[in-house]
Amino acid sequence: MAIEVGAKLEGKVTGITHFGAFVDLSGGVTGLVHISEIADNYVKDVKDHLKIDDVVKVKVINVDKDGKIGLSIKQAIDRPEGHQPPPPQRERTGAGGGPGGGERFNRGGQDRGGRPFNKQSAGRPSYGKPSFEDKMSRFLKDSEERISSLKKNTEGKRGGRGAKRV
């Protein structure tokens, strides 16, 4: 059986990796469903969506010259004309609603640096922990001290940029 791009087929999941799942189509022909082609929403772990021996409907999205077959589960789903999947939902937390209002998006309970944060205390000062403004003012103070120290050290030496000679 010739595999053509755009064909919708049924296959059996034969292997699961961290980057996708291998699907046996028929006659020993195997293709890969990349993790980004498993579902419309974000897939963190393939094992949350698929299991070995699951029968899935897939669409052939590409066939390489070397015989590799790219498959998609999310493109195999029949949708009405003009229907688009809803955008991923992100939970908003924090203070302020406008630009620069301290808005944060919940990414599984983590802030942008990957550190966990507490939804209940978001936007409120936490006593004992310095706020962003406190950290920023401390950084600026330290930075100015370091710059002035560097200037003092380079002015006394010859060859410093625009240094005064004594």
From TrEMBL:
Give any single GO term for biological process: translation
Cellular component annotations (GO), alphabetically ordered: cytoplasm
- What organism is the protein native to? Paenibacillus paeoniae
Domain named S1 motif: residues: 6-74
Q: Which stretches does UniProt call biased (Gly residues)?
A: 94-103
SMART domains, A to Z = S1 (SM00316)
* Basic and acidic residues bias locations: 104-114, 131-158
* Superkingdom of origin organism: Bacteria
Q: Name one GO molecular function term.
A: mRNA binding
Q: Where are the residues of the annotated region Disordered?
A: 71-166
Q: What is this protein called?
A: RNA-binding protein S1
The cross-references to SUPFAM superfamilies, in alphabetical order and at most eight, read: Nucleic acid-binding proteins
